[in-house]
Amino acid sequence: MPIIPAPLQSIRCLPLASLLLLAVCQHLAVDVRAQIPLLKAFNRTAQTDAMGYRWLRWSSERIGHRLTGSAQGAMAEAAADSLFRVSGLPQVMRFPFRAQAWSRGTVQLTVGDGEGFLHLQAVALANTPLSAAVDAPLLDAGNGLPADLDRLGEQLKGAAALVNIGLVAATEGARNLHRSEKAKLAMDRGAAALIFVNQAEGRVLLTGTASIDGALIPVPAACIATEDGSLLRNRLATGQALTARLGMSNQSAMVEANNVIAEIPGSRMPQEVIMIGGHLDSWDLATGATDNGLGSFSILDLARAMNAMPNRPERTIRFVLFMGEEQGLLGSRALVEHYRETGELARVKCMINLDMSGNPQGFGVGGPDGWAGLLRSACDSIRTVDTAAFAGRLSEEVWLHSDHQPFLMAGVPVIYPLSDLGKHVYGCYHSSCDDIHLVDPQAMVNNVRFVGALAYMLAAAPSLPPHFNQAQLKQRLIDSGLEQPLRIGGDWPWP
Question: What is the DSSP string of 60-82?
C-alpha cells in the first residue's frame, strides 16, 4: 500500500497574471534573458507550500534510517513513490536492482599494554567481515596515505593500523583519500585490522563503507572517536607497545532494492533529458536527515514545484532517488549500466547531483568545453531572481564517491550545487547525530529554488554541449588528481 505522509498539502495555483506572463514567454526566442520571467514565476511557486522539510521530518519520525535492504529502506522507497504520485508527476516508476546488502551486528574493541586492557567504544564500518576476531600490534598509520604506509614498511604486515579518516597535520598539497581507498592500500600492505579515527569532536562515531566495490573486505575495520584516537597516539608516541583486539559479527544478504524515478516530459525537446538525482538511502546510526534526506527530499519538493507550474520545461526533467549509494553507489551503477545497454544514456544530457546540498551558492560542473560557460550564464540569470541568497559561484572541480560518479565515468557531464552546511553538519554525517535538528528548512527551499531555476535554464538552451569523449574524460580526471583513487578502486578504465 502506498505511504502518503499526513502533512501533504494541496498545491496552490499561480495568479492569472503569472499565467499570462508565462504564456507570453513561451513565444519568445529561447535565450538567457527570455527565461527570467519564468525563473521569477518558478521562484514564487517553489516557496508556496514548500513541503521538503515537512516530508523529511515526517520520514525521520515515522521511518527512521533508510538503509538499503532494510525494512526502513523499503518504506522510504514506497514513501518517495507515493510523494511523486500525489504531487501529480505524470510518469513514476521504480527501477529494481539486486545487491549484496550488509548490516551491522556487534563489535568489540580493546587495547592492551601488557598489564591491562582499555575498552573503547567503536562502530563497525560497512562491508566488513561477517565474523572476525583479530589480536594484533597497534601501529600509527597517520593519514593512511601511501607515504604514511610506506613509512611503516614491513611492520604493517599482521598489524592493526590506526588511520585518520580526514587529514591531520598533512604535508602541503596532500590530497585525502576515501576511507575505502585507505583500507585497500593498508590491506594490500598486509594490515590485519583497521581502526579509523574520526576527526569530529564530541566523541562522534562515524560509519560508512570500507569496501571499494561493495564486496566484503577480509579484515575487520571500525571507527573510534577522535578523543580516543588522540589517547592511543599519545601512548604510542611515548614508545608503549599496544595490542588491539578487534572482534565483530555482521550480516549480509542478497536483497532487491529500487531507485525511484519520476519525470516531466519536455514540451519542445522531450527526447533530451536533464537528470536531477540524489541518494535516498542512509546509514543506520541515525535518520540520515542531512545525508541525504536534505538532498533527496529537496528533489521530491522540486518535482512538486515544477509540476505545479502551468507550462512544462522544454527538455524532459527526470528525477531519480537512488538506493545503495552508501554501500558503494549500487543503485546508480546499476542504472548507468542499464542505460548503456539500452542506449538511454545518450539521451541524458547532464546529471545534477544533490548530495548533502543546502542553500546553494552556485554550481560545480564537470563537462567538456561549453559547460562552464553555460553554467556561468545560468548563474548570472539566477542572480536576477535573488542576489541576497545566491552568490552565483562557479567551480570546475571534479570529485568522486557519490551517485554522479558512474555517470561521469560514462562521459555524462555532471553538475552539483556548491554548499557549505557548516562544521556542525559535516561533523555528524554517517553518525548518530545526523538527525532532523541539523536541517535548516530554508536550506531545502533554496535547493528547490536555485536547482529548479538551473534546470529550467538548461532545459531551454537552444543546444547543450556534448558528453565527454574518452580522451577528454581521461585528461580531465588526470588533471583533477583522480587517477590514483580510481585505480585503487578498480574504476580506471584505461591502461
Answer: HHHT----TTSHHHHHHHHHHHH
* CA–CA dist 287, 300 (Å, integer): 17
- Whether 31 has a pLDDT exceeding 70, the answer reads no
pLDDT at 423: 92
| Helix, coil or strand: residue 486 | helix
Contact 398, 366 (CB under 8 A): yes
Beta strands, E only, 358-441: 362-366, 393-395, 414-417
User: Contact at 8 Å (CB) between 111 and 222?
Assistant: no
Q: What is the pLDDT of residues 226-285, one digit of tens each?
A: 999 999 999 999 999 999 999 999 999 999 999 999 999 999 999 999 999 999 999 999
Nearest in space to 315 (alpha carbons), one of 454, 420, 166: 454
Contact 135, 158 (CB under 8 A): no
Instruction: Indicate the average pLDDT of the chain.
Output: 93
Is residue 17 predicted with pLDDT exceeding 80?
no
d(CA 379, CA 387): 10
Looking at residue 33, what is its pLDDT? 66
Q: What is the dihedral of CA 116, 227, 230, 292, to 10 degrees?
A: 120
Side chain identity at residue 312, one-letter code: R
3 has pLDDT over 70: no
Counting every residue written for the chain, the total comes to 495
For 62-207, strand residue ranges (E) read 91-112, 117-120, 123-124, 131-140, 160-164, 193-197
43 in Cβ contact with 449 (< 8 Å): yes
Give per-residue burial for 175-197: e unless 16+ CB within 10 Å, then b. Answer: ebbbbbbbbbbbbebbbbbbbbb
Contact 435/60 with Cβ under 8 angstroms?
Answer: yes
C-alpha cell at 180: 575505502
Task: State the sign of the Cα–Cα–Cα–Cα dihedral 461, 467, 472, 475.
Answer: positive
pLDDT class of 5 with cuts at 50, 70, 90: very low
Segment 278-302 shows an average pLDDT of: 98
Angle, helix 294-308 to helix 441-460, in steps of 10 degrees: 50
**DSSP-derived pairing of the beta strands 269-279 and 348-353:** parallel
Q: Which domains does the chain show, CATH number per domain? A: 16-90+265-488 (3.40.630.10), 101-252 (3.50.30.30)
CB-count burial class (<10 Å; 0-12, 13-18, 19+) for 68: buried
pLDDT given for residue 1 in this prediction: 41
All residues at 6 or more sequence positions from 279 whose CB lies less than 8 Å from its CB, including other chains: 292, 295, 296, 321, 322, 323, 324, 325, 326, 331, 332, 355, 402, 403
Taking 60 as the threshold, does the pLDDT of residue 49 lie above it? yes
User: Rounded CA gap, 305 and 47, in Å?
Assistant: 9
DSSP letter, residue 12: P
